Amino acid sequence: MPDRALPASFGEALAAARGRIPASEARLFLREVSGASAAQIAAWPERTLSAEQAARFADLLARRVAGEPVAYLLGVREFYGRDFQVGPAVLIPRPETELIVDLVLARVVPGAAPAILDLGTGSGALAVTLALERPAATVTAVDFSPAALAIARANAAALGASVRCVESDWFAALDAGERFDFIVSNPPYIVDGDPHLSQGDVRFEPASALASGPAGLDDIRRIVAAAAAFLLPGGWLMLEHGYDQAEAVRGLLRGAGFGEVASERDLAGIERVTCGRRP
């Protein structure tokens, strides 16, 4: 958008975005650049934008039209009722992953202080949320990406969560004697070359957090094969996976000796998380 076309007011900004991005996103960008509330934007379309605000809105609009995710443009995404910092180094937290939090909380005995391991923590959404929901828990977050761990640490600090962050390729850097009550993970599970990898927000997310071999199960297999050695007796392994992978993941867990294997459905009715318990 050239300078002469920069919007001078809320109304002009919304008009410039109309038909290019959803109105809800345009309002989010206006709130970001101006500090105004949604009610103020609706009530006073004539309210003026400074040149700096207008230029920033135009930049956000252009980048969103080009496909950049809203979460990356704003630097934040809500997860389990809290705002998490995000950026291109981490996967954008998604609502279906909240199912893992619910499943852990449902299994934590009142008054217990469980040890929880989050593998491939990314932004730290799972680890930080579990640490805040169960403050007595000891939570460890693992990721092989230093850039991702920096974001996870920042989120833990900003939200007041006590989380130990470890740079590791899955279990590799953990002490051999460490044991956990829960191991949770939202690992890469998309099939290599899946056309969805070149569509929508996914185009901008780290490929290492998305794709995992010809069946999308390479990383899940690695986790399942090693997890029992890091679980306490009776401990749970919980894995998010693709919409059509539940049966395969159940088979992997049973083959590794896990009991009480079951898949849980997300709010869309999709088998999204499969759990198994170490005998």
Description of the structure:
The protein has 279 residues and is α/β, with parallel strands linked by helices. The protein has two domains: 64 residues; 192 residues, Rossmann fold. Helices cover 35% and strands 19% of the residues. It contains ten helices and nine strands. The chain has a seven-stranded mixed beta sheet with strand order 5-4-3-6-7-9-8, with helices on both faces. It has a two-stranded antiparallel sheet with strand order 1-2. A hairpin with a 5-residue loop joins strand 8 and strand 9. The longest helix has 15 residues. The mean pLDDT is 94.
Q: Secondary-structure blueprint of this entry?
A:
Blueprint: H1 10-17, H2 23-34, H3 38-43, H4 51-65, H5 70-74, E1 76-79, E2 82-85, H6 98-107, E3 115-119, H7 125-133, E4 138-143, H8 146-159, E5 163-167, E6 180-185, H9 218-227, E7 231-240, H10 246-255, E8 259-265, E9 271-277
Parallel strand pairs: 3-4, 3-6, 4-5, 6-7
Antiparallel strand pairs: 1-2, 7-9, 8-9
Helix pairs in contact: 1-2, 2-4, 6-7
Key structural traits:
single chain; 279 residues; alpha/beta; Rossmann fold; seven-stranded mixed beta sheet; two-stranded antiparallel ribbon; 10 helices; 9 strands; 35% helix; 19% strand; elongated
Quick structural summary:
The chain is of the alpha/beta class and 279 residues long. It has helices at 10-17, 23-34, 38-43, 51-65, 70-74, 98-107, 125-133, 146-159, 218-227, 246-255; strands at residues 76-79, 82-85, 115-119, 138-143, 163-167, 180-185, 231-240, 259-265, 271-277. It has 2 domains: 3-66; 86-277, 3-Layer(aba) Sandwich (Rossmann fold), CATH 3.40.50.
